[in-house]
Amino acid sequence: MSPRTRFEVFKRDSFTCQYCGAQPPEVTLVVDHIHPVAAGGTSDIDNLISACEPCNRKKANRTPEQAGMVLKHKPRRPLVLAPQMRVSWRSPRTSSFG
Predict the structure, then answer these.
(1) Res. 57: pLDDT tops 60
(2) Distance between CA atoms of residues 11 and 26, nearest Å
(3) DSSP states of 27-65
(4) Phi and psi for 52 in degrees, rounded to 5?
(5) Band of residue 20 on the pLDDT scale cut at 50, 70, 90
(6) Nearest-angstrom CA–CA distance, 55 and 69
(7) What pLDDT, on a 0 to 100 scale, did the predictor assign at position 86?
(8) How far apart (Å, rounded) are the C-alpha atoms in residues 69 and 58?
(9) How many CA atoms lie within 13 A of 76 on its CB side?
(10) CB burial of residue 51 (10 Å; 0-12, 13-18, 19+)
(11) How many CB atoms lie within 10 A of CB 8?
(12) Degrees, nearest 5: CA angle 19-67-64
């Protein structure tokens, strides 16, 4: 999954676990597949939500219903995606002025 998609999911979900409502810095958020990939789920943004690590471990490789968990909000496609970010790892050039 691309860093851009991960960021869009966190932003759409207001940087909040969609199972328990926890937010950083108290927890670390991860992106969770609602319908697991192993069970035929996709990595489409409509199948992804923000989850804290404890909730993600509890859900494991199951659907929320199978794990006895309820989503706070149904995922939706963002109206506008963030612009593509470009990162350069080149070292800064030294100045020729002195």
Answers:
(1) yes
(2) 17
(3) S-EEEEESS-GGGT----GGGEEEEEHHHHHHHTTS-TT
(4) -75, 160
(5) very high
(6) 9
(7) 52
(8) 9
(9) 8
(10) buried
(11) 19
(12) 50
CA distance 66 to 86: 40
Q: Give the span between the Cα atoms of 32 and 17, in whole angstroms.
A: 10
Res. 91 pLDDT band, cuts 50 70 90 = very low
Spatial distance between the Cα atoms of 96 and 38, rounded to a whole number of angstroms = 56
pLDDT of 83: 55
Structure tokens at 54: 């404890």
Report the distance separating Cα 34 and Cα 61, nearest Å: 9
Kindly indicate the confidence band of residue 80, based on its pLDDT and cuts at 50, 70 and 90: low
The beta-strand segments (E) located in 2-98 are: 29-33, 48-52
Q: In 3D, which of 32, 26, 22 has the Cα closest to residue 67?
A: 32
